[in-house]
Write a structure and sequence with these properties.
The complex is a heterotrimer of chains A (287), B (334) and C (473).
Chain A (H helix, E strand, L loop, with lengths): L3 H28 L7 H19 L2 H25 L4 H24 L12 H25 L1 H11 L1 H6 L4 H27 L11 H11 L4 H20 L7 H16 L19
Helix pairs in contact in A: 1-5, 1-6, 1-8, 1-9, 1-10, 2-3, 2-4, 2-8, 2-9, 3-4, 3-8, 5-6, 5-8, 6-8, 9-10, 9-11, 10-11
Chain B lengths: L1 H20 L4 H13 L2 H26 L7 H18 L4 H30 L3 H21 L33 H18 L1 H11 L1 H6 L4 H28 L10 H11 L4 H25 L4 H26 L3
Helix pairs in contact in B: 1-2, 1-13, 2-3, 2-12, 3-7, 3-10, 3-11, 3-12, 4-5, 4-6, 4-10, 4-11, 5-6, 5-10, 7-8, 7-12, 11-12, 11-13, 12-13
Chain C lengths: L15 E6 L5 H8 L16 E4 L11 H6 L5 E2 L2 E2 L1 H15 L14 H13 L5 E5 L7 H16 L3 E5 L3 H7 L2 E6 L2 E7 L5 H9 L15 E11 L6 E10 L2 E5 L6 H9 L4 E7 L2 E2 L5 H7 L1 E4 L3 H5 L6 H5 L10 E2 L2 E2 L1 H14 L16 H13 L5 E5 L7 H16 L3 E6 L2 H7 L2 E6 L2 E7 L5 H8 L10
Parallel strand pairs in C: 1-6, 1-7, 2-5, 5-6, 11-18, 11-19, 14-17, 17-18
Antiparallel strand pairs in C: 3-4, 7-8, 9-10, 9-12, 12-13, 15-16, 19-20
Helix pairs in contact in C: 13-14
Classes of the chains: A mainly alpha (287), B mainly alpha (334), C alpha/beta (473).
Chain lengths: 287, 334, 473
């Protein structure tokens, strides 16, 4: 089965998968009250660690696991900074993005002895790529279920709205938020691994190409819900796919690349309807 | 002060560790770093060039911060300022005495336009300026790439850059055979001007009120929407002016890679300088050392220059903790 | 300095115990320690079971449902999932058991404050507390709701729960409790049996001496200053609807009402920070809508309800706070710059006249006590000969001495011909200060009483909605 439409759908899914992972990470963090603008850094860390470990061990599966773990660790850094040290989340997120960027570029030189890009490694392969794509959709379903049907999800949502109420219910909102940022970091790390070991078989500086920021836009478009964010991520994936389809049509590729960001800016004017962000989204809670 | 020193030492220790991981001797590394940055008149001049390029966006970030706005978009505003300066500068055919001010003002105007877009979103629609400026950063880079490679491509230019500006449009240098230009005194003057605005003027007073206690400011007759718009526009103008000085003073052309992330490092600089324009001058010099020394460090001590970016990121996280914890301690309920 | 020092307190099963004290005496801190929300630096807390705490400012998640709030932290599980049916069932059972009717599926932000308090109470009761602490539970309730609350509390005590009520409403203390502990400056200063004491004795113990006297009211000849017609503003249950009122120079008009009945919208409309329909006039000229700065220049000054957020820039100095709102006044500027010496002189005058206790004029106002902060706000509002002074809960959260000073300054302003509009949830304060009392209920003005015709019982009834039955005064 092939043809232009099938190709387009395939490409849309390929481009959407990392955005779905990152957008779900964004939803989870923001529902817990942490505005995670370090998604880009977490994608980067996941992508690099995956390739580095796959290179050192020869096993892309170990790379996958390491990439998720590294993403979770990067998420934990944000979570610890935000919940234990009262760091402003936006400033910390900006710092962590720089840290990830510099750290991975540094690591690249150390591990592969060359700047810019790694050498090619054993990737997860075509099948692996499609499993990861399917997992992205599954992750959205699981997150939806977890947020709305479990006690943990209730606590997460309560933390995003009013952490003091969570505190007075006898639960430490700092722990809830920290765990949310770690899981989110793992999701974003998985998105990064998908980029470097799923879609490709190497890491290069800047390969995440702003997907972490597109994911933030998807969170707003998706009104802070897992399915909404997934839908928005698929939409942005379709835009990316369209870019390839329209390559020779004369429409500048930069315009196509800019569309998700322009759409996000438009969303900020409220034309997509005024969904409300969680009340304590980005508001520090310390004791 | 002692804590700031503690943070600096901790960061240096982490950097040293990173150098060891990279198989380098940290003493050699640091020595190379400082030699590269301060080892002679030319090195010092280059460090001051980096200081200048950091100072403009750092003042921009601090200005918006003081008005209670997170301008994470200094990078995009700086790029647009440089883009406008490059596009106009390469085409302008007037004497230098006229060309230079025109180019600089045009660059500031471009940055202001970019900043005020986020300002409008915030003032008119209540949109989050953090997200807006993040998105505008990327749109700026894409726009610059498109224009320079595409419709506004200069004949004779190679790659993603404009043609060189005529020599008459270059900023006058302060030191012969260096890239150190009058942009440095302009930036320092700007810092002093900002200090005056904050401390002495009604405009600065209202701006700070809007930042420190928006609801009290609103009830005191201060128009928050207008303040947000003006603050973002002026912040953008400062960053844009910085971009224009890089074009007219350092590269003599616009190149899409003109900024190694000055707009982001500026956040660290502004925080280290405690949002005080004069202390930001000192902070910008410190970060200028890191920027200009990192290449020497890479070349002679074989330490990847990216370790600097890594340390700068760490610095932002660590210093944000210091500043905002102190802030909250002051305002938390008794 | 410690908020609480060396305090011993016993509360027995089945008793209703009152904890009294001025603002800042350490009551809330003590409650937080007892409930385990705050760690004491020394001493022990022994409780025969769970300690529940109902907060003064409810700690509920506004956008979640009643049942979600009630089970938060103690969720019934069915396998890996949250058992919603069991959760609703738990709410219904508790509702029935304690006579606190509430719809388990209602979203908190849609509920009136009285019902929201029930949810907070239910949440604590769900944990079957041996000790229940209520922090200022009647602050947001109408008299009828207060009676219902105390009925619930008595039922709880009858079942053996130890109840500790923190309140500054001494009449309630005398009517509903059996023992009283009085705190001052972090220490226990009196332990009283309710049967052997009275309101005055408790008040004297709280203050540590006689109550300060208020300034004398002088004869004034009221002249028209401010009027408003058909003013509607705000949203839903907090809105004000077609309200009309007049405040003349030389009189204090007091608005009586339970918090959340449109007072906030009314005040914000007058201050020009909330859009409204209808018209307002000052000295016979219409006031253009929506410009707080212009109103300040015209002489409409406000003491906002939340001084820390709406009135002061906490990190700033006393001087800089005193010029806030007047930064463009010609006497305080030199062209586009601030006139620092003039500001300092003005601050010095206000600090002296209002007895603001501050280490210096350059000290940050965040370092001042609540009472002294409020003196800065009131002094600023009265500094430039206002025409209309809008005072919203001007003595909330400040000590008795500062409160008396603030109230005296309001009376003096009235004596000098200022039109004063006082909005307060403390009926006693309204009755003591006002030349005319207006009652607000659900955003409407439901009654007006001249000072010589004040009927306390009638006002209380109107505050609870009796006016809606068609027996408006």
């Amino acid at each position: 089965m092939s043809g232009p439409l099938v190709d387009f759908v395939e490409l849309t899914l390929v481009k959407a998968a990392p955005l779905i992972y990152a957008a779900l990470a964004g939803v989870l963090c923001e529902r817990a009250g942490i505005l995670n603008i370090a998604l880009e850094g977490q994608l980067t860390v996941g992508a690099f660690t995956g390739v580095a470990v796959a290179f050192l061990t020869g096993s892309p599966l170990l790379g996958l696991v390491a990439g998720i773990a590294a993403g979770a660790l990067a998420g934990a850094l944000l979570g610890i900074a935000a919940t234990r040290f009262g760091v402003d989340q936006i400033v910390a997120g900006t710092g962590l993005n720089l840290l990830a960027l510099g750290g991975c570029a540094f690591g690249l030189t150390v591990v592969f002895g060359q700047p810019g890009a790694s050498s090619e490694v054993h990737s997860l392969g075509g099948r692996g790529e499609w499993i990861l794509i399917a997992l992205a959709f599954l992750a959205a379903i699981v997150l939806h279920f977890a947020l709305y049907r479990t006690a943990w999800g209730l606590r997460v949502r309560a933390c995003g709205e009013n952490p003091k109420a969570v505190r007075s219910a006898g639960i430490d909102p700092r722990n809830v938020r920290l765990i949310a940022t770690m899981i989110a970091g793992g999701l974003a790390g998985l998105g990064g691994v998908y980029l470097s070991l799923g879609e490709l078989d190497l890491y290069s500086d800047g390969m995440t190409a702003g997907r972490g920021f597109i994911a933030l836009a998807a969170v707003i478009f998706g009104r802070w819900t897992p399915f909404g964010a997934m839908g928005a991520a698929i939409g942005f994936g379709a835009l990316a796919a369209l870019q390839f389809t329209l390559q020779r049509s004369g429409i500048p590729s930069e315009l196509m690349q800019a569309l998700p960001y322009l759409a996000a800016l438009a969303a900020l004017t409220g034309i997509a309807g005024r969904a409300r962000a969680p009340q304590s989204d980005g508001v520090p809670y310390t004791e | 002060m002692i804590r700031a020193l503690g943070v600096a030492l901790a960061l240096a220790a982490i950097a040293a560790l990173a150098m060891i991981v990279a198989g380098a001797n940290p003493i050699v590394g640091f020595f190379a770093l400082f030699r590269g940055a301060l080892g002679g008149p030319n090195q010092i001049a280059e460090t001051l060039v980096q200081t200048t390029s950091l100072l403009f966006p750092s003042l921009a970030v601090a200005f918006a911060f003081r008005a209670g706005l997170f301008n994470i978009g200094a990078e995009g505003q700086l790029i647009i300022g440089g883009l406008v300066a490059g596009l106009i500068g390469a085409r302008l055919n007037v004497p230098g005495a006229l060309a230079i001010p025109v180019i600089l003002v045009a660059g500031a105007f471009g940055g202001a336009l970019w900043g005020s877009t986020a300002g409008v979103l915030r003032a008119r629609f209540g949109g989050n300026e953090v997200i807006a400026t993040l998105m505008l950063n990327i749109v700026a880079a894409l726009l610059a790439n498109y224009l320079v490679v595409g419709p506004l491509h200069s004949p004779g230019a190679t790659g993603a850059e404009t043609a060189q500006l005529p020599e008459s449009s270059w900023l006058p240098t302060l030191l012969a055979d260096t890239r150190l230009t009058i942009a440095l005194p302009i930036a320092i003057l700007l810092a002093f001007a900002l200090r005056f605005v904050f401390d002495r003027t009604i405009f600065g007073y209202e701006l700070r009120a809007a930042g420190d206690a928006p609801e009290a400011a609103r009830r005191a007759g201060i128009n928050l929407a207008r303040t947000a718009f003006v603050a973002m526009a002026l912040s953008g103008a400062m960053a844009g002016l910085g971009g224009a000085t890089i074009v007219t003073g350092v590269l003599h052309r616009f190149n899409v890679a003109l900024s190694p992330g000055y707009g982001f490092i500026a956040i660290a600089v502004a925080l280290v300088g405690d949002l005080d324009p004069l202390r930001i001058i000192v902070a910008a010099f410190a970060f200028g050392i890191l920027q200009s020394g990192s290449l020497t460090m890479q070349a002679y001590a074989h330490v990847p220059k990216d370790v600097v970016t890594f340390v700068e990121g760490l610095a932002i996280v660590a210093l944000a903790a210091r500043r905002f914890v102190a802030e909250r301690a002051k305002t938390s309920p008794a | 300095m410690r908020a609480v020092q060396g305090v011993d307190l016993d509360v027995f099963p089945g008793e209703i115990h009152a904890l009294c004290g001025e603002n800042g005496a350490g009551k809330t801190t003590l409650a937080s320690i007892a409930a385990g929300k705050l760690k004491a630096s020394g001493g022990t807390v022994i409780a025969r079971g769970v300690v529940g705490l109902v907060h003064q400012h409810f700690e509920l998640v506004d956008r979640l449902r009643v049942w979600e709030n009630v089970v938060l932290g103690h969720e019934p599980q069915r396998g890996a999932t949250l058992d919603r049916e069991a959760a609703r069932e738990r709410v219904n059972r508790l509702s029935k058991e304690y006579g606190l009717a509430v719809d388990p599926d209602a979203v908190i932000e849609t509920l009136p404050v009285g019902i929201a308090q029930r949810v907070e109470l239910l949440r604590e009761l769900a944990r079957d507390p041996a000790v229940l602490i209520l922090d200022e539970p009647t602050a947001v309730l109408a008299p009828v709701e207060i009676d219902a609350l105390f009925a619930t509390v008595r039922a709880l005590a009858a079942r053996g729960t130890a109840v500790l009520i923190i309140t500054h409403k001494l009449q309630e203390v005398v009517s509903h409790t059996s023992r009283i502990t009085v705190m001052r400056a972090g220490k226990v200063v009196a332990r009283l049996a309710t049967a052997d004491t009275n309101v005055d004795a408790i008040a004297r113990a709280m203050v540590g001496g006689e109550l300060p006297e208020l300034a004398a009211r002088r004869e004034t000849i009221p002249a028209p200053v401010f009027s408003m017609h058909e003013i509607s503003a705000g949203e839903s249950s907090l809105a004000v609807r077609s309200a009309a009122l007049e405040v003349r120079g030389g009189e204090i008009v007091g608005i009586a009402g339970v918090e959340g009945n449109g007072q906030s919208a009314l005040a914000d409309a007058i201050a020009g920070v909330l859009p409204y329909t209808g018209s307002m006039e000052l000295d016979g000229t219409p006031i253009p809508p929506g410009n707080p700065g212009a109103r300040i220049a015209q002489g409409i000054r406000a003491i906002p309800q939340d001084r820390r957020r709406e009135a002061l820039v906490l990190p700033w100095s006393v001087i800089d706070n005193i010029t806030l709102g007047d930064q463009r006044r010609p006497s305080l500027r030199k062209g586009g710059t601030l006139d620092r010496p003039a500001a300092r002189e003005l601050a010095r005058t206000i600090v002296e006249r209002f007895d603001v206790r501050t280490p210096s004029l350059n000290a940050s106002v965040s370092a001042l006590s609540g009472g002294n902060q409020q003196k800065v706000v009131v002094g600023r509002a009265l500094a430039h000969n206002p025409r209309l002074l809008l005072a919203y809960q001007p003595t909330r959260g400040i000590d008795v001495g500062a409160a008396a000073l603030v109230q005296s300054r309001l009376i003096e302003a009235r004596n000098a011909g200022v039109a004063v509009l006082l909005i307060s949830f403390e009926l006693d304060e309204v009755l003591a200060l006002s030349d005319r009392v207006i009652v607000m209920y659900r955003g409407a003005i439901v009654g007006t009483f001249e000072r010589d015709a004040i009927d306390r019982a009638r006002i209380g009834a109107l505050m609870a909605g009796a006016g809606l039955a068609g027996v408006a005064s």
